[in-house]
Amino acid sequence: MPTPNNNLDPPRYDPISFEELTQSDGSHPNRPILVAIKGVVFDVSSNPAFAPGGCYHVFAGKDASHAMACSSRNPKDCTAECHDIGDAEQTILDEWFECYRRKYNIVGTVMEGDQDEREDADTEDIF
Question: How confident is the model at residue 114 (pLDDT cuts 50, 70, 90)?
Answer without folding.
Answer: low
